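Could you help me review a protein record that somebody else here produced? My question to you is simply how this chain folds and whether the tokens agree. Thanks in advance; the entry in question is below:
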Amino acid sequence: MGKNFYKNKKVLVTGGTGMIGIPLVKKLLSLKAKVFVVSLDSKERCPKGAKFMKLDLKNFKNCLKVTKNIDIVFHLAGIKGSPKMASTRPASFLYPTVLFSFNMLEASRINKVKNYLFTSSVGVYSPSKVFYEDSVWNTFPSKNDWYAGWAKRLCELQVNAYKKEFGLENLSIIRPANVYGPYDNFDTKNAMVIPSLIKKAIEGGKKDLEVLGDGTPIRDFVFSEDVADAMLEMIKKKINIPLNIGSGKGYTIRKLAETIVSNIPQINKKIKWKKVNFQGDKIRILSMKKSNLKGIKAKTSLESGIKKTINWYLNKKNISNRYNVFE
């Protein structure tokens, strides 16, 4: 289980062109794994050195094809969108999320994949001051994340069922907090809070930075590379119980907005709060006690992660010379 664990292993990453998938694929390549990526994105987003396949995982035959002769599957593919999108278009979220996952695990079982990781979500939890892994099945998901939460729970239930019926022990479940970082979705109305605020702060001209709500909701944020590192450790250590990955700390949306603005010094914007009816749950913080005992820990502070994300966005837009933003 040393540093050569991944060397020459055939590793499949579904959703390997996404915010978590890209750093995960890059790390796997640096560990000398033979990496295969499945995504509906363009090939250009796939890190160089990985074999790219553009296939729809709703088709079971495609899942059988991509898992053949594979040693490890990291299943990240899913539908990404804001909480509002998941609540207003629940069928568009639930159907592909469940079908992707049910198809992939069954295909992996048939093709005797040795290790499998399913990417769950903070959305599986019921409202509470702190989210503990073992509490999930004693409660229901939050009404503010009802469909997305149940979709992820169904997929977790499949993992549990396969362990019980088929004796598959090397199945892992990771539950990330609110993930952010480079390669996030900055360009649509469905963007999450961090990419949405970064884009508005940088491209909004001289206008104040308008933030929806009153800034009081508290969230746990985790940098995408920290999630990728946790995934690698879970498979390497054969951790087959669900684990959280977050900071274990709560930050108000007000603190988040101030952190973003303060790290783009030349913008010098004021924050304007806009009253809305929907703000989601008041607080969402993951307990990291069990994860830390297993050697799983997020290392990137919120400010450091925000700086890295802003710099990536500025470089992507070729506007980094306009702002005094540092690495």
Notes: Residues 90-110 form the longest helix (21 residues). The CA atoms of residues 215 and 268 lie 19 Å apart. The first strand starts at residue 10 and ends at 14. Confidence is low (pLDDT under 50) at residues 320-327.
